[in-house]
Amino acid sequence: MRAYDQLCDRFREHHHLGGVAELLGWDQQTYLPAKGHARRAEQLAALAGLRHQRLTDPRVAGWIEAARAEVLTPLARRNLELMAWRQRRAAAVPERLATDYARAAAAAWEAWRAARQADDFARFAPHLERVVALAQARGRCLAGGGDPYAGLLEEYEPGLDPATLECLLPPLAEGLVRLTRRVAAAPVQLSPAVLQGDFPEAGQWRLAHRLVVAMGFDLDGGRLDAAPHPFSSGSLGDVRLTTRLRRADLREGIGSILHEAGHGLYEQGLDPDLADLPVGQPLSMGLHESQSRLWENQVGRSLPGAAWLLGELRAVFPERFGAVTAEAVYRALNVVTPGLIRTEADELHYNLHICLRWELERRLIAGELEVAELPAAWRAAMERWLGIEVPNDRDGCLQDVHWTSDFGYFPTYALGNLVAAQLYGAAREQVAGLEGQIAAGELAPLRGWLRDRVHRAGSRLTQAELIQSITGQPLSERPLLESLEAKVGALYGLG
């Protein structure tokens, strides 16, 4: 057997073990009994150790060197390059550290859930201190002794240097701050009232299923459940979506459902012949977030998207929405106002939420901010970035599950927003009649365009190459800022 084929077998196995870990993680956040969390942490640690062993086996490095001398197709060469990158990262981290991190993250999740419910940061703080210390150590290993945050960031954005974020995110934040100030002084103000009231959860679940089916999510290859913090997981054939509903306001449920289903469509759209190998898997979390944010914002918060959503709302709540117009839904979905909760934020303030978290997690990893100082630092940053006071930790630093393990993830949301704006601009040019189709609920053309250009591409190209190939331009903050300036300017009469 060729060395390359042995590598493929090993990386398929590694991917399947990761799928088992994801399923255990999904269960932990949805149905796991309260007494099962300690043992689940040990199960996840054992899996992390096993996955680490499968890549750090000395034979893997030998197969990589032997495969470099074999005759391979360009696709196989790219796959080999990605396998070598993953093997180097695994070998850089001691097995004990890998298992300790997985164990601490699993234990931290249950502590976070309980602390958030009780609004008691002190209950979570010891777990966060442990996770931060392990993340710092892991980051140093991955960065070869350099900036630990760079090592953690690359887990989610392969090849991305923190300096690139410095070129993209501050100009984005500056433009958004200027725009939010103009909106605050605008003569027109919008109201979300048409989407607020008493909406029983049974009806909202019917709506949720109608939306994911309309988007093309295959429920025979996935499912939809509730969770304290919306997320998606799984892989081809078994993609798990979760959401969080609010009886008094449909906006949170609609936004999270469109978002998570966008993630799910990416996973279901991967090339089935390559989905178990690095070259066929999602390219980066920024690109993954672009798929979720595109459906949530460029579709869901557009006027054509509002027309589609109104039809679904009338099917589930006919008495409430029979006389409502698409314009009214559109305006309700685009109210711009600073708020405490990231997942409920409008398109302008959302990225400011991300910049705030990006700033704080970098300081935690750099040792410039102690865990005990996080609540106060959060309050100060919210005042500076969004101009609002935080009344409690539950709606402050405890609102995000990411603190339990995902240091380096927050910037991917902002990158996803940038990519989504650029991709949607290209789709409008390349798909004839796109917005009319969306308004009529005909979402297959957009889904097919994304599947052909993004999902099926897997990791064949780098992110920079993929964006350039689809849009003809490098990644920039300008398309997002320009689209928001145009939309918000029209809605708020900014002139």
Describe this structure in words.
With 495 residues, the protein is mainly alpha-helical. The protein folds into 2 domains: 3-146, no CATH class; 164-492, Neurolysin, domain 3, CATH 1.10.1370. 66% of the residues lie in helices and 3% in strands. It is built from 21 helices and 3 strands. The protein has helices at residues 3-30, 37-56, 58-68, 74-92, 95-118, 121-142, 148-156, 162-184, 201-215, 250-268, 285-299, 303-316, 318-321, 326-333, 347-366, 374-386, 410-430, 434-439, 444-455, 463-471, 478-492; strands at residues 222-226, 232-235, 238-243. The protein has a 3-stranded mixed beta sheet, sandwiched between helices. Helix 5 packs antiparallel against helix 6 and helix 15 packs antiparallel against helix 16. The longest helix has 28 residues, at 3-30. The chain is globular and about 65 Å long. The model has no long low-confidence stretch (mean pLDDT 97).
Taken as a percent bin, the fraction of beta residues is under 5%
Mean pLDDT: 97
CATH topology of the largest domain: Neurolysin, domain 3
Structural classification: mainly alpha
N-to-C series of helices and strands: HHHHHHHHHEEEHHHHHHHHHHHH
What share of the residues lie within helices?
55-70%
**Alpha-carbon distance between the termini?**
68 Å
Total DSSP helices? 21
Q: What is the total tally of β strands? A: 3
Shape: globular
Taken together, the total number of domains comes to: 2
Identify the CATH class of the largest domain. Mainly Alpha
Stretches where pLDDT is under 50 for at least 5 consecutive residues are: none
Mind describing the biggest β-sheet? 3 strands, mixed
Radius of gyration: 22 Å
